[in-house]
Amino acid sequence: MQDEQMANPGGKPPARPLDPIDRDILRLLRTDGRASIRSVAEQVHVSRANAYARINRLLDDGVIRGFSARVDQERAGQGASAYITLKIVQNSWRTVREQLGMLPGAAHIALVSGDFDVLLLVHTEDNRSLRELVLTRIQAIPEVLSTRTLLVFEETDLDPEV
Fold first, then answer.
1. CATH 3.30.70.920 correct for 80-151
2. Is the pLDDT score of 140 beyond 50?
């Protein structure tokens, strides 16, 4: 058992290759997460039972992590978006990730390689709120050595593809 845990430390099932039908199902659900089983089955040309079983397997395997709405941040009152790069103390990723995840407006957090360690996407009401978030919340995290803020002027959601 210990060997299995070491080989699979996250506890997730091993990745299975996706066949063309699975990819079609994922493409449909990324476009419309509210699509019915019947609609999915008809569009990928399988039975409803097959579509249902495939979607459940994709959920159980962690391929589908959930269903969500694509939100227009500006229309939702979050008119200022920014990518914030952070340099952090070595080996502090888990601590920093946990603290960043609790920030209001945090949308995406990634550990990256290169000139900085972390890339954070945030959405705030306005530039004043963004400034406060960076100066009083993010820079107050002891493990954060430096930050750099990149304002988003305009963004485009790409069509979902798998």
1. yes
2. yes
